[in-house]
Every structure is written in structure tokens, then in C-alpha cells.
Amino acid sequence: MNWKKFGTTIGIMWLAYLIYKAITLTLLYSFDGLQSKPYYEFIYFIIVVAITLIILNWTKTLFKQKIRFSPNIVSLKQQWSILIVPLFLYGIDTFAILPSITKHSFYIVMATIASALGAAIFEEVRDRGFGGIGLALSMENNEWKPMFIAIVTSFVFATTHYFNLLMPNAPTLVATHQQVVFAFFMGMTSIVLYMRTGSIFYSILIHFLNNFSFWTPTSDLSQDNGWASMLIFYALIPGLYSLWCLRPKKSEMNLKYLPAKKSD
Fold first, then answer.
1. Burial class (CB in 10 A: 0-12, 13-18, 19+), 92
2. Who contacts 226 (Cβ-Cβ below 8 Å, separation ≥6)?
3. Dist. CA 170–CA 25, nearest whole Å
4. d(CA 240, CA 189)
5. Cα–Cα distance measured from residue 7 to residue 14, given in angstroms and rounded to the nearest whole number
6. Residue 257 in 3-state DSSP?
7. Band of the pLDDT at 264, cuts 50, 70, 90?
8. What is the per-residue pLDDT for 218?
9. What is the pLDDT of residues 157-169, one digit of tens each?
């Protein structure tokens, strides 16, 4: 294990998030009520895209790698079934509300898209792209490497959601705990899509569909949900899916598109 590269990867993942959070919290506390204004979503989009561009540059500078955005259709054709579970879990609600799009103004629809897409691009580039590449270069290839990368990147992705408690219109602690659990297992499914295709296109798509919900003044407030249904549908099912896809027997397939650590 190259612990220096491992530490650098985790440190920069957190640094990128803390930069984003510091900027957005400063804005939210400087301008009263900004969080409940739809135009904040466009400001948010600009901020996260700017930080994403910095992460892409860090990836090239530190790792001499590029994060692939273009869909690897050839690879997906050979294993199209890996999209079924993520689409069902994270896209079904979006597909259900899309027919109601005409009930909302163009401005609200665009604000919704900006919010959902901005978060999807930023978090997938940071956690699956940069994190996946950095951790892949930190250790030698072995049958447990994909599982290790998935757990570590998902843990970082999930725990950053605790900072939502600092927002002016913050969710409850229970709702935040549920967000963290939800995000961890969503991260596991996302890294599977990234590993199997070598592209973050599909994880961005799933993330966007999950985040898509027509904007309201209280849309940033997460609601407490029943733990039982949440753990079954958003922990057990994606957990089993991820374990099955990341099992050691499939290590060669999961390592195919990840860069390999060079010999010291």
C-alpha cells in the first residue's frame, strides 16, 4: 500500500468538499433566506462546477489520469443488467413525477435540474472519479481491491452529509443519519457502475435521477422516513447488489478500467 498516495487521495476528497461547504455556508449565512430562493440553485451549480474543474485538474496533475465522462456503450452492452437495480432504486420516483413537469414553471424546472445535476457531477467526480483513481493507484491489484475502494469512497461520500446539519434550514439529526446510510449504499452502487464501465457517465445519471425533485422552498429539508423501509430498499437491496458485483470472483472485471499501481 502506498500510504502517502492513499492519504493524499482521502485528504483532497475532503478538502474539495470542505471548500464547497465553506463557500456555500458563507453565502447562506450572509444572505438571509437565500436557501429558500430558487436562484440559489444556479449559484450552487456554478460553485460546484468550478470546484469540479479544479478536481479534474488535480486528477491530471497528481495521478496523470483523466476521468472519463463519455459513456462506454460497448462495455454496458456486455453487462446491461448492472443498470437494472440502480435505475429501479434511484430512478423510479423521478420517472413517476416527470408527467407533472407541465405543472411547474420553466424557471423552477431549470432550478431543479441545476441543483440535481450540479450535485451529481461534483460528487461523482470527487468520490467515484478522483477517489476511485487515487485509491486504485495506492495499492496493488488483488481480488479484494474493488471492495476496498468501494467501501472507502462510499464512507467518505456518506459522512460528508453530516455537514448538512450546519445549514440554516438543516434537516433533523434522524433524517441526517438516514441520509448518511442512504448515501453509503448509493455510493456502493455508483462505484460498481464506474468500475464496470470506466466512465462516470452512468453514476452521474443515476445520481441525477435520485436528486431530481421539483424545487420548493423547503426542498432542502430532508424528512424523517421509517427506518424499516429505508433499510430494506436503500440499504439491504443495494448492499446485496454491490456485494454481488464486487465479489472477489469478479475482481478482474472490476479492475479492468482502473489504473494499476506501479511497482515501487
1. exposed
2. none
3. 11
4. 10
5. 11
6. coil
7. low
8. 74
9. 999 999 999 999 9
pLDDT digits (tens, 9 = 90+) for 35-66: 999 999 999 999 999 999 999 999 999 999 99
Q: Which of 89-103, 181-195, 212-226 has the highest mean pLDDT?
A: 181-195
40 contacts 178 by C-beta, under 8 angstroms: no
Matching residue, cell 430498499: 233
- Taking alpha carbons only, the member of 193, 117, 126, 200 closest to residue 160 is 126
Contacts of 146 (CB under 8 A, 6+ apart): 195, 246, 250, 251, 254, 255, 258
- Report the amino acid identity of residue 95: F
pTM surpassing 0.90?
yes
Q: What is the pLDDT of residue 159?
A: 97
| Count, residues in the chain | 264
Q: Where are the alpha helices (DSSP H) in the chain?
A: 3-30, 40-63, 73-78, 84-97, 106-123, 131-136, 145-159, 173-197, 201-211, 227-231, 237-245, 251-255
Please choose, from the candidates 98, 121, 95, the residue with its C-alpha nearest in 3D space to the C-alpha of residue 205. 121
